[in-house]
Design a protein that fits this description.
about 300 residues, mainly alpha, about 60% helix
Length: about 300
């Protein structure tokens, strides 16, 4: 069924993906706009300059990568069962086989990272969620998950709030039948990672200064990543290689899995048009990149 998602990719969905990624990476506030200061301080204009000299947009992972778009769209397709480009709370809880803390998922619908309380998340909302979930070292992701965990919006993550989210992690451990790590031990581990100025509450600044924000957030927000964080990543950087972000590692791994899935399912009639559909998608993204370069490098 996953393979069918290529057949319904539209210019609108590719454009929406590019726009959401640009806003996610460039905007430095939670307003729905990008300021001149954002453009000056961010990497967007630098990316436009690189694209001006790079004929293959897939060599530049920011914004216009076909592989990244395909991974995002297929992950959304997996949970958007009626394919109306909207997902409910129950749909979101199915993402990644339910490894994301359900209490964190519930917070997404309460206006913490959207403009208002809502019963559904849009495709653009999901893009921001997935980018934040898969690379918790990104500045926007740190702010995203801090807002989720700050239940009362007072600008701090308290010990109570750490315990609130970890309780759901404990329930997952019991269901998985794995050895439980006590709340006290995990909160102490989290405080050792972040080393907040105030020992009983954590600020956004504390987390931004932390060298391992992903590990901190995963203790409370993703049971599988919490259990796996000490295991060696097969996509970890080798000496001499260009460093990859957590998002780039995830996208490369998932894209390979999706392509392998398509290869396995070859022989079905709907596979015949895949190469043509892929070229069309790449052309759309290429045209978007070309238009952006012409606009912002004048």
């Amino acid at each position: 069924m996953l393979s069918h998602c290529k057949a319904v990719v539209s210019t609108q969905s590719t454009g929406e993906t590019v726009t959401a990624r640009i806003f996610y990476s460039t905007r430095r506030s939670w307003r729905l706009q990008i300021t001149r200061g954002d453009l000056r301080e961010g990497s967007f204009l630098k990316t436009m300059a690189v694209l001006e000299d790079e004929p293959d947009i897939n060599q530049v992972s920011d914004y216009f990568s076909y592989e990244h778009f395909y991974v995002i769209y297929c992950k959304f397709w997996e949970i958007d069962l009626d394919h109306n480009l909207e997902v409910s709370l129950e749909d979101m809880k199915k993402h990644a086989d339910g490894t994301v803390n359900p209490r964190a998922i519930e917070r997404l619908f309460q206006g913490t990272v959207t403009q208002k309380t809502t019963d559904i998340l849009t495709y653009s909302d999901f893009i921001r969620f997935l980018l934040a979930e898969e690379d918790k070292t990104h500045p926007t992701a740190i702010e995203y998950w801090f807002r989720v965990m700050d239940l009362d919006g007072d600008g701090y993550i308290s010990l109570y709030e750490l315990e609130y989210f970890y309780q759901a992690q404990l329930e997952k451990m019991r269901l998985l039948g794995v050895e439980e790590c006590s709340i006290l031990d995990c909160i102490c581990q989290a405080l050792d990672l972040v080393r907040p100025k105030d020992e009983i509450k954590i600020t956004l600044s504390d987390v931004k200064k932390c060298k391992q924000p992903s590990q901190f957030f995963n203790i409370f927000l993703n049971i599988q990543k919490f259990l796996d964080h000490e295991m060696r990543d097969p996509f970890s950087n080798k000496e001499g290689e260009t460093p990859l972000t957590d998002w780039e590692k995830y996208a490369a791994r998932e894209y390979d899995d999706l392509i392998a899935d398509e290869e396995y399912n070859k022989g079905y009639d709907y596979e015949d048009d895949f190469e043509e559909e892929e070229e069309e998608d790449k052309m759309i993204l290429g045209n978007l990149a070309k238009s952006a370069v012409e606009t912002y490098t004048k």
